[in-house]
Specification:
The complex is a heterodimer of chains A (235) and B (287).
Chain A (H helix, E strand, L loop, with lengths): L2 H33 L3 H32 L3 H34 L6 H27 L2 H5 L1 H20 L5 H36 L26
Helix pairs in contact in A: 1-2, 1-3, 1-4, 2-3, 3-7, 4-6, 4-7, 6-7
Chain B lengths: L2 H5 L7 H5 L12 E12 L2 E12 L3 E5 L6 H5 L12 E9 L2 E2 L7 H7 E4 L10 H11 L6 H11 L3 H4 L12 H13 L5 E5 L7 H14 L4 E5 L3 H7 L2 E9 L5 E10 H6 L4 H7 L5
Parallel strand pairs in B: 3-8, 3-9, 6-7, 7-8
Antiparallel strand pairs in B: 1-2, 1-4, 4-5, 9-10
Helix pairs in contact in B: 5-6, 5-8, 6-8, 8-9
The chains are: A mainly alpha (235), B alpha/beta (287).
Chain lengths: 235, 287
């Protein structure tokens, strides 16, 4: 039994889950800053990204060292590779939180549409929930739970499309249009956070089944949103 | 901008090309050299290894891995009938070599060992000159024509020629451990075998000499079929196309014997082993 190696693996996983907790906080912070147009909180979210980055680098170098010294194979190798990917997904999610926070600051003082803000609050909560499911299913090696992320993602994708429609319907007020433009990007960021949660779920499935597959295939026509939900109607 | 650059269409790999990518193994399409079925070896009636069936493919390196006592050395020695030399040993089951029963009546074990050469764990050169070591098997088998050329070719193939060409008449024991092992490989190659058996060929060597032997194996598999027993899992992962994992099982009366647990492409064994026992062994959870 390679005891120290197993301990190292467990330690890396614990650090990764801690990073996940940090990103959950970042999503919560960004969502709250958005819903309450709180520029101070947005600044906190931006600064908080350094904590996530530190964790990211620690995991990255831990994995590098493990690969160099321990030559993991089979399930151990899959765990290491999955952690390498998940680490990157988490870091990206935190970056999206920073972008949301920056957009909150850019949009502050502009006139806005409260209904859309409510929708974003819900999207943010969904994104947070998705990450929680992704982290739990990874740590429990739970395939079914990981696969459930696909349905959660459809909800957030739908919300993103509706947000786009609502922005288009904002009308002619210049300030409102500028605000809407910022919010389109916010919506996109939240939607991408959901995508990364699905990607984490795919890593869990890979870890459990030893086969990598995408849960959904974005390049296939049948997975494109129904026409009615698309931004532009076909010619 | 030149017009032909503009005319070049953007080409992405078509799905069929992607499907045909070389995975580095391609084992199923290889010609079979040995076809072993239900092989059992007993010492004084007690099985050392039991019920092994597998195929060895031409121009591939097949590694046999497993814990001590799993019968991997015993098993590999069946392929050149070396167990015949142990009075208490009996080999049961079938070892087909190109469709011919290796243990069939009328098969000369010496002829078998000419076609199936062997290299052992400890370099074991004879206390003779470098030249005489390489020429030994050929002389015994009466292959005396062009002996100089035969010796040179064997030493070339064993990647030793450049180091010894100026001192062929010097004693073989003056060579370093790694050189001695390559000399033993040259000695095995000199009789033009088809198969080379290697029983822990690098376990007595330092890392640099080990790397040389592994590089050599990659070269040799173009012309030869290689079976290697190794304790070093990473060595199997590095050199072998196919890997067989042997383990130890307890019989009805508690006696221990080796069995074949899993046999597959090496990358499969080290990334997605099918059997839990294989996974436990390759990940170091064994014992």
């Amino acid at each position: 039994m390679r005891r120290s190696f197993q301990e190292e693996l467990q330690q890396l996983e614990a650090t990764l889950l801690e990073e996940g907790e940090l990103v959950l906080r970042a999503i919560r912070g960004a969502t709250k800053a958005l819903a309450e147009s709180d520029a101070d909180l947005a600044d906190e979210v931006i600064a908080f990204d350094d904590d996530v980055d530190r964790q990211f680098v620690a995991i990255e170098s831990g994995i590098e060292s493990l690969l160099a010294r321990q030559t993991p194979v089979a399930i151990d190798l899959r765990l290491v590779l999955a952690m390498l990917h998940i680490n990157l997904h988490l870091e990206r999610m935190a970056d999206y939180c920073v972008t949301v926070a920056k957009l909150v600051k850019l949009a502050s003082g502009l006139s806005y549409e409260p209904k859309l803000l409510d929708a974003f609050e819900e999207m943010g909560e969904r994104a947070e929930e998705m990450l929680r499911v992704a982290l739990n299913s990874f740590s429990a090696r739970n395939l079914a739970r990981a696969e459930s992320l696909v349905e959660l993602d459809e909800l957030i994708d739908g919300a993103n499309r509706r947000a786009s429609e609502q922005v288009l319907a904002l009308g002619g007020d210049l300030q409102l249009r500028e605000w809407g433009l910022r919010m389109l990007m916010v919506s996109r960021c939240l939607e991408r956070i959901g995508d990364h949660a699905v990607d984490i779920g795919e890593q869990t499935a890979y870890l459990v089944t030893a086969e990598f597959r995408e849960f959904t295939d974005a390049s296939r026509a049948e997975n494109v949103a129904p026409e009615s939900e698309q931004l532009e109607s076909p010619p | 901008m030149s017009s032909d650059t503009e005319a070049t269409p953007v080409r992405l790999a078509s799905p069929s090309t992607l499907d045909q990518r070389d995975t580095g193994a391609g084992a199923p399409f290889r010609e079979s050299v040995f076809d072993v079925s239900d092989a059992t070896v007993t010492y004084d009636g007690a099985p050392a290894v039991q019920g092994v069936s597998l195929e060895i493919h031409r121009n591939q390196i097949t590694a046999i891995i497993g814990p001590s006592g799993c019968g991997k050395s015993t098993f590999i020695r069946c392929f050149n009938r070396l167990n015949d030399l142990i009075p208490s040993a009996r080999v049961l089951g079938r070892f087909m070599y190109h469709g011919e029963d290796l243990y069939g009546a009328g098969v000369d074990p010496v002829e078998v060992r000419k076609r199936v050469g062997m290299v052992f764990q400890k370099p074991n050169p004879f206390p003779k000159s470098i030249y005489d070591n390489v020429a030994f098997g050929a002389r015994v088998l009466g292959m005396k024509e062009n002996l100089d050329a035969r010796v040179e070719r064997a030493l070339e193939q064993a990647a030793l020629w450049d180091e010894v060409k100026d001192r062929l008449k010097k004693g073989a024991l003056s060579l370093s451990g790694g050189q001695q092992q390559r000399l033993c490989i040259a000695r095995a190659l000199a009789t033009e075998p088809e198969v080379i058996l290697m029983d822990e060929p690098a376990s007595a060597l330092d890392p640099i000499a080990t790397t040389r032997i592994e590089d050599l194996m990659h070269e040799l598999k173009r012309e030869y079929t290689i079976l290697i027993v190794t304790h070093n899992m990473q060595q199997a992962a590095r050199v072998a196309d196919m890997t067989a994992f042997f383990s130890v099982e307890r019989g009805a009366e508690g006696q221990r014997h080796g069995i074949l647990v899993e046999y597959d492409r090496t990358d499969k064994i080290f990334t997605q082993p099918t059997d839990k026992r294989t996974e436990d062994y390759v990940t170091g959870r064994f014992g």
